[in-house]
Design a protein that fits this description.
Helix 1 packs across helix 4 and helix 2 crosses helix 4. The protein has one domain: TerB-like. The protein has 161 residues and is an all-alpha fold. The relative contact order is 0.14. 73% of the residues lie in helices and 0% in strands. It has 8 helices and no strands. Pfam families: TerB.
Length: 161
């Protein structure tokens, strides 16, 4: 009996942790887009997961419990989405400055390269997100090249429109 009461109380506590992130919270939108990018190639590697958590720690000063709650809410939002528009529109409302949107795109490229390679599907996902965020093709390519250079990939000189 005591175990059931304790489990019930833990359920209530975990629900309140995830409710602190509103559906239109830009952090939720960012996490959802991160999942879209990481899952694009059909495999989420350990290096991608590690880079993802590091990125969130760098961007947001959250306790470990709040970080886990944010990841859970973002993952859930991403799995329910049919496109990227909801998340990019939330981000555009909060990131009015183009440099911030470009920097966010660079973070997504870091996730692509976390496993040391990129593929066409990841390119397409980033292209769609960049387009919806209002980031130019030139800036998208520059961010990709910079991400590739950060990991030492030979992918920096490749031409892309």
């Amino acid at each position: 009996m005591f175990d059931r009461i304790q489990a019930f109380l833990q359920t209530l506590t975990s629900r309140s942790d995830t409710r602190e992130f509103a559906p239109d919270d830009p952090r939720v939108a960012f996490v959802a887009l991160c999942f879209q990018v990481m899952e694009a190639d059909g495999h989420v590697s350990e290096s991608e997961q590690k880079r993802f958590r590091d990125l969130l720690r760098e961007r947001y000063d959250l306790t470990e419990d709040r970080l886990k709650a944010l990841i859970a809410v973002g993952r859930d939002a991403g799995s329910q989405a049919v496109d990227y528009y909801r998340f990019t529109s939330d981000l555009r409302r909060h990131l009015v400055n183009e440099e911030d949107r470009v920097e966010l795109l660079g973070s997504l490229w870091d996730l692509v390269y976390a496993d040391g390679k990129r593929n066409e599907i990841e390119d397409h996902v980033i292209w769609r997100i960049a387009d919806l965020l209002g980031v130019s093709s030139r800036e998208r390519v520059l961010q990709r090249q910079q991400a590739a250079a950060r990991i030492g990939s030979g992918d920096t000189a490749e031409a892309e429109a």
